[in-house]
Amino acid sequence: MTSLSALTLPDHTQLPDSDGTFVKNWQEHPQSILLTDSIKLVLEELYPDSQYCIGQDLGIYWRLTDPPEKGAEAPDWFYVPNVPPTLDGKMRRSYVLWKEYVAPLIVIEFVSGDGSEERDNTPPSQGEGGNVGKFWVYEQAIRVPYYGIYEVAKAQVEVYHLVDNTYELMQPNERGHYPIVPMGVELGIWQGFYLNADLPWLRWWDAQGNLLLTGYERAEVERQKREIIVEKLRSLSAEQLNALGIDPEMLD
Q1: What is 25-59 written as a DSSP string?
Q2: How far is CA 8 from the centre of its chain?
Q3: Which residues fall within 8 angstroms of residue 137, CB to CB, at 6 or more apart?
Q4: Which residue from 12, 142, 28, 171 is spatially nearest to 80, judged by alpha carbons?
Q5: Are 138 and 144 spatial neighbours (Cβ–Cβ below 8 Å)?
Q6: Which of 104, 195, 199, 227 sits a CA distance of 20 to 30 A from 239?
């Protein structure tokens, strides 16, 4: 008789957390940081209890294979709602669907080649050597509601929405953005300077079309506001400053 332990499925501590490949391009890391940093305040408002998880180039295990890593996809960026940020006090080494049960709400792939890998719809029955297309996995196996394919070389992003178990290509709104309704945000391309590079970056906006800022950008906005206030105060006389209870030396 088969023991219960023999039927226990592996968790994130027992599965490989890397397939040994390099990050494909220099922009992947800063792009992931930009997405995570700028969405943080939105997610904190949606989940005051911090019950959410963000993965950056982290494996999502969706099937058991030999070797195990062939049963995983590693999106460049993904977000899962309603799950704890850690497991047993430890950061996840991977995201294991048969242990977590909750699928990511959105996965985003950053294209390095011609985009064929990210749009590959090959099912298991047709894949050679057990290989399955990324598009098929996200649509049919993991069933991710939103799938984004970002191509910096073309300054564009494609966003697919799962409707009746099939991905439909979304059309941009009047701002050229793609609403991710459950998050209350929009996804789109922003041409600008970030981490020493002027590129068409993938970024978030709120539902009113306001760009969601990173922590550094928010601090810079506050600094500029303070400078404007200080300059206005400097235009006042010493008597006016004293009336406001402000020491003129403080402005220096």
Answers
A1: -TTHHHHHHHHHHHHHHHHHHH-TT--EEEESS--
A2: 31
A3: 62, 73
A4: 142
A5: yes
A6: 227
